[in-house]
Amino acid sequence: MLRFRSLSSGSAGNATLIQATDGTASRPARLLVDCGLSVRQIERRLQAAGAAIAELDALFITHEHADHLGQALPLALRAGIPVWASQGTWDAALAQADPPLTQAIAPLMRIAHDHTPIAIGALLAEPFTVPHDAREPLQLRASDGARRLGILTDLGHVTPHAIDMLRGCQGLLLESNHDPGLLERSSYPPFLKHRIRGPHGHLSNAQALEALAQLKHPSLTAAVAAHLSERNNRPEWVQAGWAAALGCAPSDIRVSSRRGLGWIEV
Ligand SMILES: [Zn+2]
Ligand SMILES: [Zn+2]
User: Fold this and answer.
1) Contact 17, 52 (CB under 8 A)
2) 22: CA distance to ligand 1 center in Å?
3) Which ligand is nearest to the CA of 130?
4) Which of 37, 73, 187, 203 has the lowest CB atom count within 10 Å?
């Protein structure tokens, strides 16, 4: 069984727990994707999910932005678990870290590559490259062998590679970051507006719908809109757009926020 739980989503912090069980292992495999919250917050939210830091098997960091990297290194040290990230993400993360932390984390460092699967017990994670203004960002497809979940946030535009990697996924956590009109009228400084709407920024609602149109199929049953801008978006607009695209009621569309969501089975 494959299931996931958004612990938090958005520029205030991102973390997603993925859990896979194959019936033979005594306990599920648990991967935490991103750790953009304090260790205490992660601990609380894991507890609410029925898990503990000590029960995590690995961490995957998509890129070095603070809302994703956050407290990943201290958390990994506390749990004594491997941390997967691209070489570029590691370079950027270690450049910000204190020397003692850099030294302590060395044995737990694992280098993730585009299209190279990572086996974590019953869970198979397959990273892939996305266009975003970080050193070497990766997003992820996760599988328990039967079902597949795609995580796709923090990208400036939808690429054929991302679509190829996520085609056929039954679960999807997809960025729908902003409404271009609200962004334009916001008080954000011009450089930030330019960054967000640029080809290495974040997906607008229309771009997310474009991706959804390419990824939808009858078995896509667990779709979640994520990484919404709190200022430059409206959850009800996203729900209306996704409902029209997927042929369901707006209230059926799940939107994650800084409060996260409950468990969703893929
Ligand atoms: Zn982000
Ligand atoms: Zn980012």
Assistant:
1) no
2) 31
3) 2
4) 187
Residue with tokens 């039954």: 170
Q: Give distance in angstroms: CA of 81 to centre of ligand 2.
A: 24
pLDDT tens digit at each of 266 positions of the chain? 999 999 999 999 999 999 999 877 778 999 999 999 999 999 999 999 999 999 999 999 999 999 999 999 999 999 999 999 999 999 999 999 999 999 999 999 999 999 999 999 999 999 999 999 999 999 999 999 999 999 999 999 999 999 999 999 999 999 999 999 999 999 999 999 999 999 999 999 999 999 999 999 999 999 999 999 999 999 999 999 999 999 999 999 999 999 999 999 99
Tell me, in angstroms, the distance from the centre of ligand 1 to residue 228's CA.
Answer: 10
**Domain spans of the chain?**
2-265
Ligand with an atom nearest the CA of residue 34:
1
**Nearest CA-CA partner of 187 in 143, 232, 146:** 232
Task: Label the pairing between strands 15-20 and 2-8.
Answer: antiparallel
CATH class of 2-265: alpha beta
